[in-house]
Structures are given as structure tokens and as C-alpha cells.
Design goal:
The structure holds 2 protein chains of 2 kinds. Chain A has helices at about 5-25, 30-50, 55-75, 75-80, 110-120, 125-135, 140-150, 155-170, 180-200, 210-230, 235-245, 270-285, 295-305, 315-330, 330-345, 350-355, 370-380, 385-395, 400-415. By secondary structure, chain A is mainly alpha-helical. Chain A starts with a helix and ends with a helix. Chain B is flat, with a radius of gyration of 17 Å. Classes of the chains: A mainly alpha, B alpha+beta. The interface between A and B is small, with 10 and 9 residues.
């Protein structure tokens, strides 16, 4: 790969969202905008090879893509009649189409937040929001997204087309929601980024535990949101959570890809820079008011990341944080993690009582971590037959190969001892 | 502005035989809703309540092309269509905001964009 290719790949990762968001405003249509942005990246290769890389590659790409969009609209009048995407024409930041691309000194507004909020609109199904965000905000190809989620390209293409159609036909507006709607709408955005991260962090299926490309994209998105909304505490909390969790990535499996638990991980290999950045973000996010669910999760991750050894973990603090988290986010998965913390503070018997109190929750049916957590507590209590039973239940539900083989190892341990 | 239909779904059992108080509450709630839509810059184009599904009759074609008339709604559901509004709203966000304010004590609202049939075929 030569210098130009490298610059272009870098620009694709860093500038795609900005270029597309700015072009959507001119094109008024997601498909047209996407095509024009793709064309701009293609023509950049020849232009930059011939005349050198421009001082500001992002601005070059944006101007080129926006000009192209104008050309397309001039040529195809029928398309113009179908300017389908809903952009508020009274918005003072909407450019006068007549002047776009005429001057080199165009001030191009940063529309990335509009793009993100449109892709993550709660009226779209969660899986569609994720696909759209990867496609439109991260610039991944449909084939890449299909691969990441282990579905066929046709299925993924249909999912993306359906979502874009709903955006235009149902008139989902291209805008940042007003202040009174912002907390709810932002939570939908953060949920998408977090889910993207967790899907990459522990791949739901397949042989490898981590899908680095999804993890990297989620981190990019969290960073971008933090840049665009620097004062929002939950955005800060999410970025911190991802950094602190990801700091342990290299130590989560051994050389053979086997899963290692928190207590088995080599803490000297944790990413210190990510931990100190994440820790600092947590302290800022906790600074004022009541923390939200991402900030609380990040705080728990910080307690673990900053503890010098597993034996030094402050489980009382972890339990207190899970109590606070459960209060703002009453999810059975949080209750499950809280039960594990209860076991660490008050012993496995108390942990088991806490676990059994949520056993009837239908949302936990099919969730492999529930029988896995139960199995672990039963094993520690010496109830090996019950433990074996629970490990088998967990294995039958787990879909990730690394996790399955970990559970199989534990099952073998308790059955040989029993 | 665009038109949306707000379809009001709910469990009919709860409102089969309304008391005078319930009826009164219902009328007031819908009156307040209509007023709120206008105050927020929207428009109510149409709206009505439907008689219970026990009074419905379905007419449908069978495999041989004959039309069969049967007693009951087209689709049996626990939460039945009980009424509707057609509103004008600037976008889906506003239509959703109207739906949130629309009385639907025994169920919820489905928001559907209304197709503009005056121009070219959709998707062309």
C-alpha cells in the first residue's frame, strides 16, 4: 500500500461520517448522497496521485461529493422532485444550493449528529439501527456488515433498504432532537454503540471470542460522540466503559484462544493508557448529579481495572455500584451481575439466594450466563452434582466457541471431583 | 406536512359496557387530545370510534375466487382496532408526539404514514 492509499484509508475511517452527513444535506436523499461520497473517494485516488494530497483531505472529499450531488440533481430533475429526506428548510444552517462548491472557503456545518440520530431513531428496529449506523456513519460496506453479523449479504442489503425506505416514507426527520427529547433519543444512540461493542467484545457466534473490527468501530463512534457532545455525562460514561473494558482485550484469552477469567488475567498486560484515560473520564462523569447507567457501568469497570490484583478488588464498592445501577436500570442482567457481587461480599450462599430470586424472569430464559453463574456458585459451595447440571444447561445455551470450551472444562472438573 | 393515521388498539373487554363516568372521561380525553394537536401546530383531518368487533363482518375471497361472508373481524386479535384519527404532522417525530397524547387506556396506538396517491407510483 503506498502513501496515497494509506491517506485515503485513513480519511475513509476518520472523515466518512462528516463527508456523508454534509452531502446528505445537499442531496436530500440518503442513496444519492452515499453514491456521491463513494464517487468522491474513488476520484480522490486519481486526483491525489496526480496533484498530491490536499492539505485538508476531508474538506476536499466533502466539496467533491457535494458538487457531485448537485450535478446529479441538475441532471435528474425527477430525482429533485423526490427529495425525500426531511430536512427542515427553515434551518438557518441549510446551505443555499446555488452557492455550494462555488467558493473554496465554504464553511461546511458538521452534520454528523443529525446522521447519527437519524440512523438510531427509535422508530427503527434495533438491528436496523445497528446496520444503518455501520453503513452510513462508519462507511462499512454491506458485505462487511453482513460478515460481522453472520448473515447473508442479501439479507443485510434488504434490512438496510427497508430501514432507508421507512426513514423517507414515514418521514423520520434529519435533525438533532430538541432538548426535551434528547435524553431518551441519546440513550437509543448509546445503546446502539454499546451493543456494537458487546457484539465485537464477545462474538455471539463463531470460533473467536473477539471481533476486533466491531470493537474498533464502536470505540471510534464513542469517541466521535464525545467530541460532538463533550458535556454529556452519559456519552463520557460510555466512552469510559468501552476504554476500560477494552483495556483487558489482550488478556481475555490465552495463546490457544481459551477464555481466561478476570482472576486469571495477567494485569501487567492491561492497556495502562486506556485505563488512565477511562478512569479520568469516569471521575469527570461522576462529578455532578446522579450518574446514569453507562457511567455506573464504567465506574464498575474502573474499580476492576484500577485494582492492582484480583484479591484486592473492592467488592463492597462493586456491590454498592450494582445496587445503584439496578435502581436506574432494572434489568435482569444487572441483577445477575449484582448477585455475583453479593457472592463475593457475603459468600456464595447469599449469592445463590440473590440469583434464585430472579430465576423466574422470562427475559433470562436462554441467557447462558445465568446457569453459568449459578454453576460457579454451586461449585464453590461443593454442590458438585448441581453444579454439573447447571454447567450443562449453560453449555447448551452458549453460542461462542471459546465460552463453550471454557464451560466444558469446568464441567469436566466438577464431574471428575464428584 | 404529511398525513398519518393513528390506529387505536385496545382490549375491548375493558370498554364493552362503559359506566357514565367512563364515557364522560373518554369524551373529555378525546376533546383534550383534539385541542392539543391543534395547539401544537397539527391538524385533525378525520377521526371516529368503531363499534366493537362483535358487530364486525368480514368479506373475503377464498381459493376458488368466491367471496365468503363471515361473522367477526378480518383478523382476530386480543387487542382490537377500536378507533382512528387521521392527523397532519410535520414529520414522524410530531406524529409520535401526537400518538403519545392520544387516549388509548386499554392498549396503544399504531402510527401509519398515509400514502400520497396523487403522484407517481410509490418507489418509482
Amino acid at each position: 500500500m503506498n502513501e496515497i492509499h494509506r491517506t485515503l484509508a485513513e480519511a475513509h475511517r476518520r472523515e466518512w461520517a462528516f463527508v456523508l452527513a454534509a452531502t446528505v444535506r445537499v442531496a436530500g436523499n440518503l442513496d444519492v448522497a452515499e453514491e456521491c461520497v463513494q464517487d468522491a473517494f474513488v476520484s480522490a485516488l486519481a486526483a491525489w496521485t496526480e496533484r498530491g494530497v490536499p492539505g485538508n483531505p476531508g474538506a476536499w472529499l466533502t466539496t467533491t461529493a457535494r458538487r457531485r450531488a448537485l450535478d446529479v440533481l441538475r441532471r435528474d430533475r425527477t430525482l429533485r422532485g423526490k427529495l425525500t429526506l426531511l430536512i427542515d428548510p427553515t434551518d438557518p444552517a441549510v446551505p443555499d444550493p446555488a452557492t455550494i462548491g462555488e467558493g473554496e472557503g465554504d464553511v461546511i456545518p458538521d452534520d454528523r449528529l443529525r446522521l447519527v440520530f437519524t440512523c438510531c431513531h427509535p422508530a427503527l428496529a434495533l438491528e436496523a439501527r445497528i446496520a444503518l449506523t455501520l453503513r452510513l456513519v462508519c462507511g462499512l460496506t454491506t458485505a462487511e456488515i453482513a460478515r460481522a453479523f453472520l448473515v447473508s449479504e442479501t439479507t443485510m442489503a434488504a434490512r438496510i433498504t427497508r430501514a432507508k425506505k421507512k426513514i423517507t416514507i414515514a418521514r423520520i426527520p434529519y435533525r438533532v432532537p430538541p432538548a426535551h427529547e434528547l435524553p431518551d433519543r441519546l440513550d437509543a444512540v448509546l445503546t446502539v454503540v454499546h451493543l456494537l461493542y458487546t457484539t465485537g467484545h464477545t462474538a455471539p457466534e463463531g470460533d473467536t471470542l473477539v471481533r476486533p473490527e466491531l470493537v474498533e468501530r464502536a470505540l471510534d463512534l464513542a469517541r466521535m460522540l464525545h467530541t460532538l457532545m463533550p458535556d454529556d455525562r452519559e456519552v463520557r460514561g460510555l466512552l469510559a466503559l468501552l476504554l476500560l473494558t477494552d483495556a483487558r482485550r489482550a488478556t481475555r484469552t490465552d495463546d490457544d484462544g481459551r477464555l481466561l477469567l478476570l482472576e486469571e488475567q495477567d494485569r501487567s498486560r492491561w492497556d495502562r493508557q486506556a485505563i488512565s484515560e477511562g478512569g479520568e473520564l469516569v471521575r469527570q462523569a461522576l462529578h455532578r448529579g446522579r450518574p446514569g447507567r453507562f457511567t455506573l457501568q464504567a465506574t464498575i469497570a474502573a474499580v476492576h481495572a484500577e485494582s492492582p490484583a484480583y484479591a484486592d478488588t473492592d467488592w463492597h464498592e462493586v456491590l454498592g455500584l450494582y445496587n445503584a445501577l439496578l435502581a436506574v436500570w432494572p434489568s435482569p442482567v444487572v441483577a445477575l451481575n449484582r448477585a455475583v457481587a453479593v457472592a463475593m461480599v457475603e459468600g456464595p450462599e447469599a449469592g445463590l439466594v440473590a440469583l434464585d430470586s430472579i430465576a423466574g424472569d422470562a427475559r433470562l430464559a436462554g441467557y447462558p450466563y445465568f446457569p453459568a453463574a449459578r454453576a460457579d456458585l454451586l461449585r464453590r459451595l461443593g454442590r458438585l452434582q448441581d453444579a454439573a447440571h447447571a454447567y450443562r444447561a449453560a453449555i447448551s445455551l452458549a453460542t461462542n466457541a471459546a465460552e463453550r470450551s471454557f464451560l466444558a472444562r469446568r464441567l469436566a472438573e466438577v464431574t471428575t471431583t464428584a | 406536512m404529511a398525513k398519518y393515521m393513528l390506529l387505536i388498539y385496545g382490549d375491548e373487554a375493558g370498554f364493552a359496557n362503559p359506566t357514565p363516568e367512563q364515557w364522560d372521561w373518554m369524551m373529555k380525553a378525546h376533546g383534550a387530545f383534539a385541542q392539543a394537536v391543534v395547539e401544537q401546530g397539527g391538524q385533525i383531518v378525520a377521526g371516529d370510534a368503531l363499534q366493537p368487533t362483535a358487530t364486525a363482518t368480514a368479506v373475503r375471497g377464498d381459493a376458488t375466487g368466491d367471496q365468503i361472508v363471515t361473522d367477526g373481524p378480518f383478523v382476530e386479535t386480543k387487542e382490537a382496532l377500536g378507533g382512528f384519527y387521521i392527523v397532519e404532522a410535520t414529520d414522524l417525530d410530531q406524529a409520535i408526539a401526537f400518538a403519545r397524547q392520544c387516549p388509548a387506556p386499554a392498549g396503544g396506538i399504531e402510527v401509519r404514514p398515509i400514502m400520497d396517491t396523487s403522484g407517481a407510483a410509490p418507489g418509482s
